[in-house]
């Protein structure tokens, strides 16, 4: 791997990690285009490193909310710590189903990683996103307009939808969770906020576990490329998340679904059939 390849992969990771287009799918397709074996140990380790850069970006964007969730916020004028209605129970309910499935089905899931699997997942995930948006649009009113309105049942429902992305590489974690939230009566923005927040613990757990098998790839020859990938992924992911949340009312799930359909069609026509 050279520095140009590292930069390309880091940019792809930063752009796609938190928007509903599937970063895993994009990484599999990109490595195939670049002629790399996605299962190569060096490549797998590099992907973990750039994913950690993206995680750091989202943690900084939501740092105030995370501090409040941990009970470390500044004291209020009445001497009490700030308490949001969103709490750690919501987070646990949102991540526990996917973590349990990932733990027990890890080897099975790894066997599903392929370009063909990703192409079908891009299409299926896009259909779910369109359905979720239409259902949400026709609903008279969402029961959770804001993040702090989220119920425990809705948090668990989002966690259950997240299982789809764990079992089907390319489906998109954010796509499944945002769609699951909207189907459960949560607004688009609140679903996106919750999706991004629960991404932090679940991605840290997944990346940390994978690093146990890959830490030997950190050598004097690779550390520079890993560091460059981490920094670039962090910067790109930070900018993308800020732009996405600022433009969320103008960029609908259907727009992302159409992009997924076009990507799957183009890749099948020009790469898979060549």
From TrEMBL:
GO terms for cellular component: plasma membrane. Its main location: membrane. The keyword Cell membrane applies. It is an enzyme of class 3 (hydrolase). GO terms for biological process: cell wall organization; peptidoglycan biosynthetic process; regulation of cell shape; response to antibiotic. The chain crosses the membrane at residues 7-28, 48-65, 86-105, 111-131, 191-212, 224-245, 251-271. It catalyses: di-trans,octa-cis-undecaprenyl diphosphate + H2O = di-trans,octa-cis-undecaprenyl phosphate + phosphate + H(+). It is found in: Cell membrane. Its EC number is 3.6.1.27. It comes from the Bacteria. It is a multi-pass membrane protein. NCBIfam families: PRK00281.1-4 (NF001390), undec_PP_bacA (TIGR00753). Catalyzes the dephosphorylation of undecaprenyl diphosphate (UPP). Confers resistance to bacitracin. Belongs to the UppP family. PANTHER family: UNDECAPRENYL-DIPHOSPHATASE (PTHR30622:SF3). Bacitracin is thought to be involved in the inhibition of peptidoglycan synthesis by sequestering undecaprenyl diphosphate, thereby reducing the pool of lipid carrier available. This is Undecaprenyl-diphosphatase. It comes from Paenibacillus spiritus. The gene is uppP.
């Amino acid at each position: 791997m050279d520095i140009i390849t590292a930069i390309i992969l880091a940019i792809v990771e930063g752009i796609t990690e938190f928007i509903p287009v599937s970063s895993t799918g994009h990484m599999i397709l990109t490595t195939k285009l670049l002629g790399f074996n996605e299962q190569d140990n060096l490549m797998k380790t590099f992907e973990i490193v750039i994913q950690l850069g993206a995680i750091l970006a989202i943690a900084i964007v939501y740092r105030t909310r995370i501090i409040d969730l941990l009970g470390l916020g500044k004291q209020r004028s009445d001497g009490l710590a700030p308490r949001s209605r969103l709490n750690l129970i919501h987070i646990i309910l949102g991540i526990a189903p996917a973590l349990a499935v990932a733990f027990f089905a890890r080897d099975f899931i790894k066997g599903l990683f392929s370009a063909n699997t990703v192409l079908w997942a891009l299409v299926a995930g896009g259909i779910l996103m369109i359905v979720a948006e239409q259902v949400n649009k026709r609903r008279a009113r969402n029961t959770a307009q804001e993040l702090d309105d989220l119920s425990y049942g809705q948090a668990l429902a989002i966690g259950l939808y997240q299982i789809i992305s764990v079992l089907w590489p390319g489906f998109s974690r954010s796509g499944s969770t945002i769609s699951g939230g909207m189907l459960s009566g949560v607004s688009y923005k609140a679903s996106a906020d919750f999706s991004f927040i629960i991404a932090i613990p679940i991605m840290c757990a997944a990346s940390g576990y994978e690093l146990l098998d890959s830490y030997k790839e950190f050598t004097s020859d690779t550390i520079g490329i890993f560091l460059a990938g981490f920094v670039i992924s962090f910067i790109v992911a930070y900018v993308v998340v800020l732009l996405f949340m600022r433009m969320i009312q103008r960029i609908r799930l259907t727009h992302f679904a159409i992009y997924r359909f076009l990507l799957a069609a183009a890749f099948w026509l020009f790469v898979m059939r060549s």
